[in-house]
Amino acid sequence: MQSRPTFEQVRDAAMAHVRARGWDEENTGRGLAISISLEASELLEYFQWQEENVGDTEDLASELADIIIYAIQFADKYGIDILPEVLKKLEKQPRNIQWRYLRSRIKKSVIACGARRSCHMRRIRRCEQAQTPRAHPHW
Fold it and tell me: Helices 29-45 and 57-78: crossing angle, nearest 10°?
């Protein structure tokens, strides 16, 4: 029974495939970014007119594989180590969501208390600079 491949094995196989055909020299960053978008659009076509997909899992997996292969090429071209970048993004994500929630709360409090918007916006900027929410009587 064959073991599950690691990300590094998949990345190396994809890049060997690309290099064997000389595509690594031909493809530009712009072209790869466009290709990622086009392949993502092809995946989206399976859901275009309904909530459930119109293809089978094999079709979806094939489209997803195309996206990942182009993403691997893009990362290779720009020297991006994908896995640490994914982890950094996931680490940063909760903070982004927290600030969006805080902004929406401030907008609602401005309406409710009738205070000047500029007062609240200055507080947002100070909070963002400090990266910690500050207490406010209306929150």
Answer: 170
